[in-house]
Design a protein that fits this description.
Elements: E1 16-17, H1 19-30, E2 43-46, E3 51-57, E4 87-93, E5 95-104, H2 105-110, H3 115-140, E6 149-150, H4 172-187, E7 197-201, H5 203-211, H6 213-219, H7 225-230, E8 249-252, E9 256-258, E10 268-270, E11 276-280, E12 297-312, E13 317-330, E14 337-339
Parallel strand pairs: 2-12, 6-14, 7-8
Antiparallel strand pairs: 1-12, 3-4, 5-13, 7-11, 9-10, 11-14, 12-13
């Protein structure tokens, strides 16, 4: 006679996916431009497998006309053969992270609100902080930019200077930004215009721009001087306008990382540091798997804030977790530019 064992081994507690909580976290965090700034400059690409490839083309092939006569086709002659465009497939591999939480069964039973959703929101903030750290690391890695990288403003093709030393005379900030605009326009083969470029900086860099003599010279004797001093209207975000010199947007990513252990001396910093990163995001927040894109920074997400929970009657508690299985990548470096440190 065969016997069936119910709940044997490790199968006693079966996790269930909380679809409602998962959808709420996507709406509130990963797909909301008002929660984490990352959603304003990175493109999320839902993927069906944890490993895959994205296509990277040599955009110079689309503008290379070294000899205008190369494509002439005289009557009666063989057609021009030309050359195939070059491209490569770059691999990505997502990584799974779990952010657990525990709720006493008595608390869950007596609560007048959805305590699972409340705890999930808290862990989603932690998950988004980790995701932002990973994205910032990808942006700060010089090898990801295929040459569209300068360690500091002095390393730009036409050397400028640190932005906190920018004055009305030298105009380092304007010169740096407009030089990057021209570089991106060229390397993208004209596919990315200045109005599509987003400059991503930390509050530390935003304050340096606001306090720079170059900026103060612009607003001096200007009708907007009072708003500049008040930090209102145009200058309501860290003392700088919503955009600069024709950029599509300026995103101040104020995400914070706490590096100290609980109970120790508090240590916190802005995740993005002192760099200035220029990206584009045609197609909006959510991309399409396998599509060729000029979105500079993409996040390949196999799982996007999945919420799971299961009851543990042995310990009288509900165990839950928020799962993020994703990886960021600088997919289109020709459509962006990175300056590693603009303050020095």
């Amino acid at each position: 006679m065969a016997y069936t064992v119910v709940g044997g081994g490790l199968s006693t507690y079966i996790p269930s996916t909380n679809d409602l909580a998962t959808g709420a976290l996507q709406v509130e965090f990963t797909r909301s431009v008002n929660s984490f700034a990352l959603s304003r400059y990175a493109q999320i690409v839902p993927v069906t497998k944890m490993t895959g490839y994205y296509l990277r083309q040599d955009t110079t092939d689309n503008t290379r006309v070294s000899d205008v006569n190369e494509f002439v086709w005289p009557l009666g002659n063989d057609r021009p053969t030309g050359k195939q465009n070059s491209f490569e497939f770059v691999q990505y591999a997502t990584q799974r992270f779990a952010f657990p939480f525990y709720i006493p069964q008595e608390s869950a039973n007596q609560a007048s609100w959805d305590v699972v959703a409340q705890h999930a929101r808290s862990k989603a903030q932690l998950a988004m902080t980790r995701r932002t750290i990973a994205a910032a690391s990808a942006l700060a890695t010089s090898g990801n930019w295929a040459g569209n990288y300068a360690a500091n403003p002095a390393a730009l093709p036409t050397s400028t200077g640190n932005w906190n030393n920018s004055s009305e005379a030298n105009g380092y900030i304007q010169a740096s930004i407009q030089q990057v605009m021209q570089i991106v326009s060229k390397t993208s083969g004209g596919a990315v215009s200045p109005s599509q470029i987003i400059m991503v900086i930390s509050p530390e860099v935003a304050v340096a721009i606001s306090q720079a003599p170059e900026t103060k010279a612009y607003v001096k004797n200007n009708p907007g001087t009072l708003q500049f001093y008040q930090g209102s209207d145009t200058f309501a975000r860290w003392g700088i306008p919503p955009t600069l010199f024709g950029l599509g947007d300026v995103v101040v990513d104020d995400s914070v990382r706490t590096t100290s252990k609980k109970g120790g001396t508090l240590a916190q910093s802005f995740i993005l540091g002192q760099g200035a990163y220029f990206v584009s995001r045609p197609g909006g927040l959510v991309g399409v798997e396998g599509a060729n894109s000029f979105a500079t920074l993409q996040i390949f997400a196999y799982e996007d804030m999945t919420v799971e929970q299961f009851n543990d009657p042995l310990n009288r508690r509900i165990e839950g977790r928020v799962i993020d299985n994703s990886v960021p990548a600088v997919v289109a470096p020709v459509a962006g530019y990175a300056i590693g440190d603009v303050i020095g």
